[in-house]
Write a structure and sequence with these properties.
The complex is a heterodimer of chains A (about 475) and B (about 120). By secondary structure, chain A is an alpha+beta fold. Helices cover about 35% and strands about 20% of the residues of chain A. A nine-stranded mixed β-sheet of chain A has the order 3-6-7-10-1-11-12-13-14, covered by helices on one side. A three-stranded antiparallel β-sheet of chain A has the order 5-4-15, with no helix packed on it. Chain B has about 120 residues and is mainly alpha-helical. Classes of the chains: A alpha+beta (about 475), B mainly alpha (about 120).
Chain lengths: ~475, ~120
């Protein structure tokens, strides 16, 4: 935070309040209201048709798949999926040649939902509505910035791509929670196949509404909307900067003005874009070219029946099966290793060791091909003392690459459980060779423990079990 | 309608819900709408359009005079719902042909004057 405003918020005194609006591009083949292709990164102005260009006589017809995806997201976010309609949002700007954006205004398709974060907190979702994306403008000349551009060039490939705008409630209380919310939402969008969630390609764009208030206050403070947040890192930085700016203002006896502000990643600060008194007057009215959308129970039930198990439910399932904290399950689910872990646990593997391997020694992708029974055998060998934690990690890595059984790999590598009598002999030799250190150890200097454990490991070329060695040394004190 | 969400304060500025038809539209209102549409009107045009628009709104007042208790607002005359298009790609327009019709082109993009302020 200090790199931003030069001050750090005293969180004993202040509370940060954040509400996020997330625009997600839907993974349809074609645009929301026309058959032009929905594709990122094409040659400029190749995915265009009369509707995209707002040519006279063109008429919008709604893409059924976009509605299907909006229903999926609505159900995944525990929203009511409702009859909806499209309105025209009128504004004059070259990124949409019709001079209006078709958007759902007061009758959105999804309303009143929530999502659960990995730490168990629940964030409300006010609504999610369908709308068209705009074309991409590039500002040329001047400093390349919008205010001093000599002129702009426009590529309409993105104009008309279906967006779902997901409006969250101001339930978020920190930058980290905001990042967790966006990550969770992204995981849900990907899980239901609604969006690829690529922030770097603009498939997922976040505007954040930030305000601060004295801790314990019930009324919300005046908020500012921060735009141009293009990564999770930017999101966290922008919120912390903006909250600190507002606290500074209030602390100096000034008022926070309701504004739209632009996040500058390089400078690490926000700039005023416009104040709300100058807010655009969009003159919304129902679009006469389009009819009401009423998916009906049958369609909604069909979508519900085909829903995958969502990340939050997967975390709960894994926590219940393994007995570990809910928060510990997040990384395993994120990597898509939860099914593997569940199967290994069912096959008798110790749950905590299983999850530890998934968290530290496995990544997603190829590891998901790991055979659950083999994984369970490996964990069993480790639990039974046949392998140390370090050896188990090495065997696991080879299981992933070669597909061999853990027993074969352990044998090939000469990993065998050290006999305790063998260890006893090694300790005897070490005690004899290092009498001063041993004396200090006996007198209670625990720092010397590490030295002896290290020496045993060296003597056994890492094959001894650290825990067994520690126990042995302590028993001799 | 029962499924309408309350309008958020930012968005509740639609002209069709500010005060009904009892007040006549003013020259200031017309100037504002013209500005939003980037139309330049001289004083005579402003006067002309203010009267014309007021007459149109007077027509709406005739409807407001009726007893509409219990009648739901209707945006479209046709009793249609769920008109959809399959998610199938069609033929795009030819870029060269489209750009040939544009007033100004740069790097296969439409070239436009600088925009004042950001949306």
């Amino acid at each position: 935070m200090s790199d931003a405003s030069g001050s750090t918020i005293d969180l004993e005194k202040w509370e940060i309040v954040v509400g996020l609006e997330v625009h997600a591009e839907l993974s349809t083949r074609t645009k929301l209201f026309s058959s032009a292709i929905n594709q990122f990164g094409g040659e400029p102005n190749t995915n265009i048709d009369p509707l995209t260009l707002g040519l006279p006589g063109s008429l919008p017809v709604l893409n059924e798949q976009a509605v299907e995806l909006a229903i999926r997201v609505g159900l995944a976010l525990n929203c009511a999926v409702r009859p909806s309609e499209f309105s025209r949002k009128n504004y004059f700007y070259p990124d949409l040649p019709k001079d209006y954006q078709i958007s759902q205004f007061d009758r959105p398709i999804d309303a009143e939902g929530h999502l659960e974060l990995p730490d168990g907190s629940v964030i409300g979702v006010e609504r999610a509505h369908l709308e068209e994306d705009t074309g991409k403008s590039t500002h040329v000349g001047g400093g390349g910035r919008i205010h001093d551009a000599g002129h702009s060039t426009i590529d309409y490939n993105r104009a008309g791509v279906p967006l779902l705008e997901i409006v969250g409630k101001p339930d978020i209380r920190s930058a980290d929670q905001a990042k967790a919310y966006v990550s969770e939402l992204r995981a849900i969008l990907i899980a239901v196949g609604a969006s690829d969630g690529k922030m770097e390609e603009g498939s997922m764009r976040v505007d954040c509404n930030v305000s601060v208030r004295a801790r314990g206050a019930s009324e919300l403070g005046t908020r500012c909307e921060v735009k141009n947040v293009n990564s999770l890192r930017s999101l966290g930085r922008a919120i912390e900067y903006e909250a600190a700016r507002q606290v500074d203002l209030i602390s100096a006896g000034e008022d926070v003005q309701q504004q739209t502000r632009h996040w500058n990643e390089d400078e690490g600060r926000t700039h005023k874009l416009r104040s709300k008194e100058e807010a655009d007057d969009y003159r919304f009215f129902p679009d006469p070219d389009l009819v009401e959308v009423d998916p009906g129970e049958e369609w909604i039930d069909r979508v519900r029946a085909a829903m995958p198990v969502l990340p939050a439910a997967r975390r709960h399932r894994l926590a219940e099966a393994s007995g570990v904290d809910l928060a510990k399950t997040a990384i395993v689910v994120e990597r898509g290793l939860d099914e593997l872990c569940l199967a290994a646990i069912r096959a008798g593997a110790d749950p905590v060791r299983t999850l530890t391997h998934a968290e530290h020694n496995l990544s997603g992708g190829r590891s998901s091909n790991l055979d659950p029974d083999g994984f369970a055998s490996l964990v069993g060998m480790e639990t039974g003392g046949e392998l140390t934690a370090t050896q188990a990690k090495q065997v696991l890595a080879e299981m992933v690459s070669s597909g061999d059984s853990p027993a074969d790999i352990a044998q090939a590598r000469g990993f065998e459980a050290m006999d305790n009598s063998e260890l006893e002999g090694i300790v005897d030799e070490l005690v004899a060779a290092n009498p001063d250190e041993w004396q200090r150890f006996i007198e209670g200097d625990s720092k010397v423990m590490g030295f002896f454990v290290g020496q045993v490991m060296k003597a056994t070329r890492g094959q001894a079990d650290g825990k067994v060695v520690t126990k042995l040394l302590n028993s001799r004190r | 309608m029962s499924d309408r969400l309350p309008k958020s304060p930012d968005n509740a500025k639609s002209p069709n819900n500010d005060g009904g038809a009892n007040q006549r539209i003013s020259a200031d209102d017309v100037a504002k709408v013209a500005n939003l549409s980037r139309l330049t009107l001289d004083a005579d045009e402003l006067d002309l359009f203010t009267h014309q628009l007021a007459d149109i709104l007077d027509h709406a007042r005739d409807i407001e005079a009726l007893d509409l208790e219990g009648v739901e607002p209707m945006a479209r005359p046709l009793p249609l719902v769920n008109v959809f298009r399959a998610d199938e790609p069609g033929e795009p327009l030819d870029r060269a042909e489209v750009l040939a019709a544009a007033p100004s082109v740069e790097n296969n993009q439409f070239r436009v004057p600088p925009s004042l302020g950001e949306r």
